[in-house]
Amino acid sequence: MTTRQIGIDAHTAGGGALVVAGGLVAAVTGPLGLEKGSWLAAYLVLVGGVALIIIGIAQQNLPTPVPAPIQIVQLSGWAVANAVVIVGALVSSSVTIDVGAVLLLLVLALTWWAGHGLIRLRNTLAYAYLAILTILIVSAPIGMVLGAR
Questions:
Q1: Is the pLDDT of residue 16 over 60?
Q2: So where does this one cross the membrane (predicted)?
């Protein structure tokens, strides 16, 4: 059995930073009485951070590397889309949430396309990665509906 090393790339570093940010938000939510703090903490950790870490780790294991321009679009799109969703939720603007969710859908579709080569590996982790992306793609419209409430 060989050990596989996971590098710290922009995806995993950015995801780690979002997990830490989510933890900090969770820590101050109660003392500061932040009404949407719990939601924001969970969003930062799960959608912003953990998903981005998974993307980074998976892309490090692709048969062929994701070209740098696509990675730049992924990361910048991820940052903008999530920022727009967060702002929309904090100001209770369903239109803003929808714009962010559509941007996130585009980034997720690009990421799924970039990672579909993992199917050739025929292993459980490859399938799990693509399943996670699919779940995120399906859950974005659900978030749009819930954000409209």
A1: yes
A2: 12-34, 40-58, 70-91, 97-115, 127-148
